Amino acid sequence: MTAPKPPSKPHLIRMHPRDNVAIVGNDGGLAAGTTIPDGPTLKDKVPQAHKVALTDLTAGQPVIRYGVTIGYALKDIAAGSWVHEKLLQMPSARNFENLPIATIKPHQTEPLTGFTFEGYRNDDGSVGTRNLLGITTTVQCVAGVVEFAVQRIRNELLPRYKNVDDVVGLEHSYGCGVAIDAAEAIIPIRTVRNISLNPNFGGEVMVVSLGCEKLQPDRLLPPGSFPIKDDRSTSVNTICLQDAEHVGFMSMIEAIMREAEIHLKRLNQRTRETVPASALVVGMQCGGSDALSGVTANPALGIAADLLVRAGATVMFSENTEVRDGVDQLTARAANPDVAQAIIDQLEWYDNYLARGKVDRSANTTPGNKAGGLSNIVEKAMGSIIKSGSAQISSVLAPGEKLGAGQRGLVYAATPASDFICGTLQLAAGMNLHIFTTGRGTPYGLAECPVIKVATRSDLARRWHDLMDVNAGRVADGELSIEALGMEIFKLMLEVASGRKTWAEQWKIHNALVLFNPAPIT
Amino acid sequence: MTAPKPPSKPHLIRMHPRDNVAIVGNDGGLAAGTTIPDGPTLKDKVPQAHKVALTDLTAGQPVIRYGVTIGYALKDIAAGSWVHEKLLQMPSARNFENLPIATIKPHQTEPLTGFTFEGYRNDDGSVGTRNLLGITTTVQCVAGVVEFAVQRIRNELLPRYKNVDDVVGLEHSYGCGVAIDAAEAIIPIRTVRNISLNPNFGGEVMVVSLGCEKLQPDRLLPPGSFPIKDDRSTSVNTICLQDAEHVGFMSMIEAIMREAEIHLKRLNQRTRETVPASALVVGMQCGGSDALSGVTANPALGIAADLLVRAGATVMFSENTEVRDGVDQLTARAANPDVAQAIIDQLEWYDNYLARGKVDRSANTTPGNKAGGLSNIVEKAMGSIIKSGSAQISSVLAPGEKLGAGQRGLVYAATPASDFICGTLQLAAGMNLHIFTTGRGTPYGLAECPVIKVATRSDLARRWHDLMDVNAGRVADGELSIEALGMEIFKLMLEVASGRKTWAEQWKIHNALVLFNPAPIT
Ligand SMILES: [Ca+2]
Ligand SMILES: [Ca+2]
Ligand SMILES: [Ca+2]
Ligand SMILES: [Ca+2]
Ligand SMILES: [Ca+2]
């Protein structure tokens, strides 16, 4: 921990020349009466990251941030007033007609060369950032047995396979008691399938099945679904607990351990080698957001995303309800009309999914968002989209889909915004590095892939000094430019991809895989 | 393990005098050509638990089992033939009009007295069967931190509190990224709330919260929701990770441990005392069912259910899609018209829930069910309902609801049939003992409450000798009557409630809490 800094000069942060509100940058907020250089005198005490009116606003006037109308003033608001959520009426969602389609031509950007990391090359061309044995499960019923086996593998086998980082039971709540023939069941099924094929597992797929579950191993992983290797001719890859050969619990445990050892031996042959930065598949996400998310951490991720694209890497952004109000920005940035249509299809499907449950995108925002200065989902969305940077959107993934060989650059991976569900779906897409920004703070981690956590403000970074990997609050403090922070994050990604542990990995804190299942359960 | 038995005489099991099919009782099935004493000669090889036509059936004729039409013959079927699922057309679901309402008058049954167990009395009158510290969580985000703390509590604190059996982190996938204001969100919310109030946690509720989640601690447990004790005046019961007081990860862990110790001290004062059998709250369930489920294990549970009701205890049966086809039996057995209407309301709501996802009750059956001889959901339902015995249905719980003080006797707890979701909801209802029948075999267990597992057939009981607690296959083998087995199970329940460990407890195998959330996620 470093000593607390002297208070910085009062300052507001405006995101776009058209904006008629700006937010307080100072840690701890500003008192009523504070005079802002080149700005208004505050009429109210305004917390950090909350909005201040830059001019007098009359009732009904658009309130503009990020150059976008985030709401309409519900009454007259004097310059220098705190513009909080109770003073704003939220605009309705833009419909899907007459959207700008692939209208923005790409910047001519210089390819970024010479950046590399030390990764594990896989036979299918993907690259792992960790060397993990993943144990795939077909159904929650086997979770207790797998957990028991994982403990024994970790204690008894792993010490002999020094190049393997860990063993991970891919437990989940799916597999039985579900309407598996419902059309939307494809989402959880392909999610589990594709997670088992994540680059960090090196193609060493092994499955623990119960036997009578709906999600049978051949349905989960039909022949041909392993792009990497498939030696099921030897029928060695699935342990089925109900098989007649198992007499007694230890027979099941030992069968899992024997199978695990076959894979551990092969995984132990993997060694890190120098690979170009283009092998990164980065999943970006924000959670526990505050108004600084869209000012410090997410814009820096936007810079990093542009660097990744220039380096030939893949970078995914997600969170349907947080891009819904910027659908026109997304369709305009689509590389071609097919991509634009795929974006519309995903967001329209999600609108309908929410409507079935009689809610809409505004169900996204949390008490913490509002306490953190985000008045509504429109404002939150603008601060969330900014992490996608400025590149063209090259392709779109439906929830649980895996990136194809040709899908590189900036990808919109359509997912719910829920942190643990979005992360689970990005793992299925093939993510080998996760970067996560938070303003309120979350100890989020994944067992399957490193998660770099970026604090939006210095106060959080100081308090959670051994949980947050990056302090983006330095931008609000005026210590660092967004561009410099973006480059710092890009370089940190390469270090973490090469094996440097994140805080979540050091403590071994991780969240459960949580599947997105829009189909009914039975 | 006992030595395999000599093969028993060929025999079929008929459930009702009206039945025109019966199932093969013999372990291993019977060969074509086998002559059945007082029955047909088999035309086909028929696996154990599969159906045999007792008479010639003509195309279109009702096929009757449990005295109920389980399907219509799709073609002529000769006596002695194997009647498998491809030969049957499933009847459509009975509609909700003109049902018999509370028409069956209760048997005059003798109260059953003199049975007791050794349990932990709670202040609210409930009784625990285990002495556990439960750590309630408001959101999945905190799961990694809670897991870390649970390990340290188990290693460092529990050895000093010998009367406490274990510490359980009540982790779940809810709390954020959900449409928490959707009408149906009440289900997952009350489920988490009511699980924290389960009798096995002794009223010692402590909560770990992130801070910015949608499911705020006061929404999860509003003042007054603790029927047992509520000392939130001291604000000591919630650890909020985002609180400014926490500097560094260890500050969070130590705060959880300090709070845990307060509760461990009080839990350690609990001692077992003799209580009447009426303090049992038994949740009954079946999973991984085969056709013997409805012949051996479930009928024996029916006997045990009747004994429990006679002893003044509470016994719940559940699994909406497995009672749907017997709705007329349930409404007829309702204690009064209000109870009958509550049953209809729950099943109608569930029909609509399934229809929203474009499926129906037939989505329940699994490949294992069919391989095990259950042709369709109607046949499966008849074999599932039978575990409710013959008592009147005294009340109905909606999913996630908790039993009220006056709700005793036979209760229909409306839940999905999914094993881990049904179990989670029965925990919320206040279950202190779970009994689970299985034909195909599942290693199912819960950390929150003992689970007695009953094998429907001897083959499974022999192979899974250290996972199955009871072998109901002895009924099919002709060794034991259903009535004798029902009494044996009743007595075993009292022993397990008194502290005898089940196999799942000995191995510490347990499944995750899986919430039923019909509302959208965001
Ligand atoms: Ca977000
Ligand atoms: Ca998120
Ligand atoms: Ca666990
Ligand atoms: Ca069942
Ligand atoms: Ca079940």
UniProtKB/TrEMBL annotation, chains A, B:
Its EC number is 4.2.1.42. It comes from the Bacteria. Gene3D superfamilies: 2.30.130.110. Coiled coil: none annotated. Residues 19-89 form the SAF domain. Transmembrane segments: none annotated. One of its GO terms (molecular function) is galactarate dehydratase activity. CDD domains: SAF_AH_GD (cd11613). GO terms for biological process: D-galacturonate catabolic process; galactarate catabolic process. It holds the Pfam family SAF. Keywords: Lyase. Belongs to the UxaA family. This is Galactarate dehydratase. It comes from Zwartia hollandica.
